Amino acid sequence: MTNLGSHRFAIVTIVLAFMLLVLMVACLLFGSVDIDANVIFSILMGKDSGNEALNTIVLESRVPMILTAMLAGAALSVSGLLLQTTFNNPLAGPSILGVSTGAGLGVAIVMLAMGGTIGGVYGDSIGGYFATLLAAVIGAGVVLVILMVFASIVKSSTMLLIMGILVSYLASSVISLLNSVATEQGLQSYVYWGFGNFTGVSLDQMPIFAIVIVLSLVAAMLMIKPLNALLLGTRYAQNLGVNTHRTRNLLLLITGVLTAVVTAFCGPIGFLGLVVPHIARLALNTSDHSRLMPVTMLTGAVTALLCTLISVSSPHGIIPINAITPIIGVPIIIYIIINRRKINYFN
Amino acid sequence: MAILHTHNMAVGFGQKGKKTILLKELNLTLEQGSLVALLGRNGAGKSTLIRAITCDNAPIEGSVEINSKPSSSITKHQLSKLVALVATERIMGGAFTISELVGLGRQPHTGFLGRLSKHDKDVVNQCLEAVGISHKAQQHVASLSDGERQKAMIAKALAQETPIIVLDEPTAFLDVASRIETMQLLHKLAHEQNKAVLLSSHDISQSLLLADELWVITNDREVVTGTTEQVVMSGAMDRVFGDTSIFFNGNLCDYEAQLPTRVKVKLVCDDSNLARCMTNALLRNGIAIDETSPFALNVAAADKITLPDGKIVGSVKDVVKYFQ
Which residues in chain A have Cβ-Cβ distances shorter than 8 Å to B80? Predict the structure, then answer.
């Protein structure tokens, strides 16, 4: 790492950490119910506010929501970064390649066809959410395997994106077919899930959600060396001693688990995975994963919290996350596509 | 010292169990401290042979032995310390600095997380120095010219500290100046750092000038090997293309087209450069040079040509008119 690079890395990290802190506080303070900051602080410090409803809102709604948003944001962003490097395609991402939709199909099968539910809001049956989670992982995995097979046949990255979009369509149409046979309650929870939200992880589900994501993120951090080699292409990576076959499979496994877990709990959140790695690269002006990875995680957490803050600040109820992410994501992607010749990491 | 041998190796490609052999019975040797150029027409099997030498693809028959060890018993990690590759693929890491890119060449020597030690950083700096791009160490790969990029990739290969460096058409996308510079650099590295350097190329004249040895794939799929002078004198260069209208000109160290000619003239000219230019000009206008021809053209300058009848004309066009 160069001196200039490490300097920039330090500044970016500090700014992001500060933003994260501010957004965490803001998400605690703002919401559909106005609660005094002192009360929130004392509840967090473990003192009883004397008001059961306020305790519940802070400890069982806002705190888990903030944690969920941070973990989900980091998870989706890292999965986008891994996909972009694995497929050598800067426009790859879990939503655009159909990985989220694959996970969604798994969820739909459980929710609609088998009547299972997920999330504290819609039911607490442990069996229900494990089944949904497993179905999501399998769904994401199937899409990733299809993409892998296709990528080995067709080398064009544009074709791969189109393949991802086609897989998405196919999965969506299966979901629509399932909709027609679903119960009304199943349909309702599925539609709500599809909007995307960070309120779906209850406190007792939090440990499993957090552990799976944190472990996967740690696993991703351990792949930094081969990821950097893969940026040079398969042939160079192999020549540097990387077992590219095993590395790709591991990377896709990590991506699949991260995307699936987030999708199962929070719905198919679009754009974060595609956009955040680009924000990180633009901020750092580097291709080096040892700096990109932590900054992608932080940026993902910050972006997801920002979306959460916007979603809960409306006086007319909660805005779906998927209504906000494109507003942040699309302009950035358009900027990147237009300026790709000037952006270092594209060339 | 010989670092790589192939034993009765056959290379080719296989699709659905059906194997196509491109080159067979190859008994090749790479020596340290020597630059070897692999020449052959498109589709002759240069890249396939290179992939077998770098152990990317296993040979269909026979074996490759590196450092007296069969390649089948060499692990990927060991291999990364024996053979370094410079491929033709464009890389995606445009926002790596040159120094970081060359640092990736240290991967076979670094630990699980790939952190560079003081020694690794020293090696990187030496490699940047060796290829002459130290002054660009902190610039991004994307800001480099094609020639500089190729130098950076060669520095990456050097940083692997392998006895063998294999380059797949390293000068393919370069302009003449960068081509010459790259070839000279590789020649220097082979000799000064005692590397066995194998490169495939279409750049015949530079290869003949700078390669210590040639591996020439002929049109009938034979690989002729030897020192550059041996191979050229063996006539193998004439067998590279099946096409009879293209022949190897030993004087030019390059291939030429056999152009149809109508007349033969004797060229009288003191300046060898001018003589070569005039020969080309006459050839493309259907006039061949033959020392025994009764028609003598006396050339004093490109625009001062004395015809056989003593008349002085100003261009080759006038010469053509005269012979019509």
Answer: 239-241
Q: What are phi and psi of B85, to 5 degrees?
A: -120, 140
For B85, which residue in chain A has the nearest alpha carbon? Answer: A239
* Cross-chain Cβ contact A239/B110 below 8 Å: no
Contact A2 B113 (CB under 8 A): no
User: Contact at 8 Å (CB) between B104 and B142?
Assistant: no
| DSSP E strands, B16-99 | 18-26, 29-31, 34-39, 61-66, 69-70, 83-86
- What distance in Å separates the CA atoms of residue A290 and residue B74, rounded to the nearest whole number? 30
Task: Read off the pTM.
Answer: 0.88
Per the CB < 8 Å rule, is A4 touching B138?
Answer: yes
Q: Taking a C-beta distance cutoff of 8 angstroms, is the pair B131, B102 a contact?
A: no
Q: What is the pLDDT of residues B233-292, one digit of tens each?
A: 888 888 888 777 788 887 777 888 777 888 889 999 888 899 989 988 998 888 888 888
pLDDT tens, A38-89?
A: 888 888 888 777 788 888 888 888 999 999 999 999 999 999 999 999 888 8
| Integer Cα distance of A276 and A73 in angstroms | 9
Supply angle C-alpha A93, A240, A282, rounded to 5: 35
Of B54, B77, B100, the CB nearest to A241: B77
DSSP output for B295-321: -EEEEEETTEEE-TTS-EESSHHHHHH
Could you give the CA distance from residue B272 to residue B270 in angstroms, rounded to a whole number? 6
Spatial CB neighbours of A153, under 8 Å, sequence gap ≥ 6: none
Q: Are B119 and B147 in contact (CB under 8 A)?
A: no
Interface A-B, measured as beta-carbon pairs within 8 A, has a size of 106
> How many Cα atoms sit within 13 Å of B113 on the Cβ side?
10
In degrees and rounded to multiples of 5, residue B61 shows phi and psi of -135, 160
Predicted ipTM of the assembly: 0.86
Give the whole-angstrom CA distance, residue B38 versus residue B27: 14
Q: Which residue has the tokens 């442990």?
A: A126
Measured between CB atoms, does B54 come within 8 Å of chain A?
A: yes
Residue with tokens 């390059």: B254
d(CA A277, CA A79): 9
The candidate with the shortest Cα–Cα distance to A232, out of B156, B227, B241, is: B156
Q: How far apart are CA A334 and CA A328, in angstroms?
A: 11
Residue A246 identity? R
Q: In what order do the strands lie in the sheet with B34-39?
A: B83-86, B164-167, B196-201, B34-39, B213-217, B223-227
- If we measure between CA atoms, which residue out of A75, A74, A48, A43 comes closest to residue A59? A43
The 8-class DSSP code of residue B70 comes to E
- Is A269:A69 a contact under the CB 8 Å cutoff? no
- Taking phi over 0 as left and psi of -120 to 50 as alpha, with beta for the rest, A346 belongs to alpha
Beta-carbon count within 10 A of B238 CB: 16
Helix (H) or strand (E) holding A328: helix A321-338
Give the sign of the dihedral formed by CA B115, CA B118, CA B123, CA B124: positive
Tens-place pLDDT, residues A91-110: 889 988 888 899 989 888 88
A42 close contact with B: CB closer than 8 A: no
Do residue B114 and residue A344 have CB atoms under 8 angstroms apart? no
Distances (CA, A) of A175 to A105, A146, A195, B151: 6, 18, 15, 53
Residue position matching structure tokens 């290969």? B157
Strand partners, B27: none
H/E element, B122: helix B118-131
The residues, any chain, with a CB within 8 Å of residue B10's CB and separated by 6 or more, are B21, B23, B24, B25, B26, B59, B60, B61, B62
